[in-house]
Amino acid sequence: MAKVLVVTSGKGGVGKTTSTAALGAALAQTGKNVVVVDFDVGLRNLDLVMGAERRVVFDLINVVQGDAKLAQALIRDKRLETLSILPASQTRDKDALTPEGVARVIEELREKFDWVICDSPAGIERGAQLAMYHADQAVVVTNPEVSSVRDSDRIIGMLDSTTERAKKGEKIDKHLLLTRYDPARAARGEMLRTEDVLEILSIPLLGIIPESEEVLRASNLGMPVTLSNPTSAPSRAYFEAVRRLEGETLDVSVPTERKGLFDWLFKRSVA
Amino acid sequence: MSFLASFFGRKTSAPVARDRLQILLAHERAGEGQSELIATLQEEILEVIKRHISVDQDKVQIKMDRGTGVSMLEIDIEVPETRPAVKTA
């Protein structure tokens, strides 16, 4: 049974696209059939982060409007044969997405893949609502910063009220992914701690992705970080997150770059 | 670092962020009709006052200060000077 997962946040720039690419690749690296779908119509970037920008011919809008078959628009990743991407349109506007068309595409993707991961646009408008509508599970990407936490709270409210599952009276599994976390600053009281964010948002923790140079390096190269450097701290955090998505129970820790005693001091179990 | 910061009397900022968020979100979750509440109050209070004294719409300020335990509704009305009728001899 395929699972539809939305990666969402409300606020822009917190790491939705980076996390979609990393989680999608990490699941594909474990042998699952995965498709990542870019819902950010007009501002597509998932193709660029995944290094597939020069291979886009057809996109989600073309498939939604019936101008192209799904198989024509799907791009198979060159490095991972179990990973595909369905890009968004760069030229059209978001009104070109119709609820019926999206429903049809998601249904077709459910038949082909184990995981359908939808990269939501920022905001709470139509595009974001369509991206979350069919989700069975949601990853709420949050930075340890006040505006991001506030927007995440709003998005959690929407997940519980405006999605298909919510309308049927069913639950949608929500997971918190804390990104750009700096354990040293949190320990010094300069940044919201994991416990603070968890207490405020009260949804289960999927993982803590530490702030890392590797993330920018990966997007420079057009690779999900879990592929460009699988042993780096953010990659290990994404691999752990994926195991939790698959139902494993693991203690959450903040992985650090293995450099020495100083890093070891901050590698503590936090939840 | 943290002991140095506290030694020099500089408070850490994360607890402030947490407290602000907790207060804000408690209110935001309570309902989105809250923002309309102020506008409705302003309108209705003004109506009542107008029955007795004529006040300028712009001279009425209504503010809401949301706290953890108590919220304060502040109504500030500038009443026009009522001149006592001066008797001229």
UniProtKB/TrEMBL annotation, chain A:
<dbReference type="InterPro" id="IPR025501">
    <property type="entry name" value="MinD_FleN"/>
</dbReference>
<keyword id="KW-0067">ATP-binding</keyword>
<dbReference type="GO" id="GO:0000917">
    <property type="term" value="P:division septum assembly"/>
</dbReference>
<dbReference type="GO" id="GO:0005829">
    <property type="term" value="C:cytosol"/>
</dbReference>
<dbReference type="InterPro" id="IPR050625">
    <property type="entry name" value="ParA/MinD_ATPase"/>
</dbReference>
<feature type="binding site">
    <location>
        <begin position="11"/>
        <end position="18"/>
    </location>
    <ligand>
        <name>ATP</name>
    </ligand>
</feature>
<dbReference type="InterPro" id="IPR010223">
    <property type="entry name" value="MinD"/>
</dbReference>
<protein>
    <recommendedName>
        <fullName>Septum site-determining protein MinD</fullName>
    </recommendedName>
</protein>
<dbReference type="Pfam" id="PF01656">
    <property type="entry name" value="CbiA"/>
</dbReference>
<dbReference type="GO" id="GO:0009898">
    <property type="term" value="C:cytoplasmic side of plasma membrane"/>
</dbReference>
<dbReference type="GO" id="GO:0005524">
    <property type="term" value="F:ATP binding"/>
</dbReference>
<comment type="function">
    <text>ATPase required for the correct placement of the division site. Cell division inhibitors MinC and MinD act in concert to form an inhibitor capable of blocking formation of the polar Z ring septums. Rapidly oscillates between the poles of the cell to destabilize FtsZ filaments that have formed before they mature into polar Z rings.</text>
</comment>
<feature type="domain" description="CobQ/CobB/MinD/ParA nucleotide binding">
    <location>
        <begin position="5"/>
        <end position="225"/>
    </location>
</feature>
<keyword id="KW-0132">Cell division</keyword>
<dbReference type="InterPro" id="IPR027417">
    <property type="entry name" value="P-loop_NTPase"/>
</dbReference>
<comment type="similarity">
    <text>Belongs to the ParA family. MinD subfamily.</text>
</comment>
<dbReference type="InterPro" id="IPR002586">
    <property type="entry name" value="CobQ/CobB/MinD/ParA_Nub-bd_dom"/>
</dbReference>
<keyword id="KW-0717">Septation</keyword>
<comment type="subunit">
    <text>Interacts with MinC and FtsZ.</text>
</comment>
<dbReference type="GO" id="GO:0051782">
    <property type="term" value="P:negative regulation of cell division"/>
</dbReference>
<dbReference type="GO" id="GO:0016887">
    <property type="term" value="F:ATP hydrolysis activity"/>
</dbReference>
<keyword id="KW-0547">Nucleotide-binding</keyword>
UniProtKB/TrEMBL annotation, chain B:
<keyword id="KW-0131">Cell cycle</keyword>
<comment type="function">
    <text>Prevents the cell division inhibition by proteins MinC and MinD at internal division sites while permitting inhibition at polar sites. This ensures cell division at the proper site by restricting the formation of a division septum at the midpoint of the long axis of the cell.</text>
</comment>
<dbReference type="GO" id="GO:0051301">
    <property type="term" value="P:cell division"/>
</dbReference>
<dbReference type="GO" id="GO:0032955">
    <property type="term" value="P:regulation of division septum assembly"/>
</dbReference>
<comment type="similarity">
    <text>Belongs to the MinE family.</text>
</comment>
<dbReference type="Pfam" id="PF03776">
    <property type="entry name" value="MinE"/>
</dbReference>
<dbReference type="InterPro" id="IPR036707">
    <property type="entry name" value="MinE_sf"/>
</dbReference>
<dbReference type="InterPro" id="IPR005527">
    <property type="entry name" value="MinE"/>
</dbReference>
<keyword id="KW-0132">Cell division</keyword>
<protein>
    <recommendedName>
        <fullName>Cell division topological specificity factor</fullName>
    </recommendedName>
</protein>
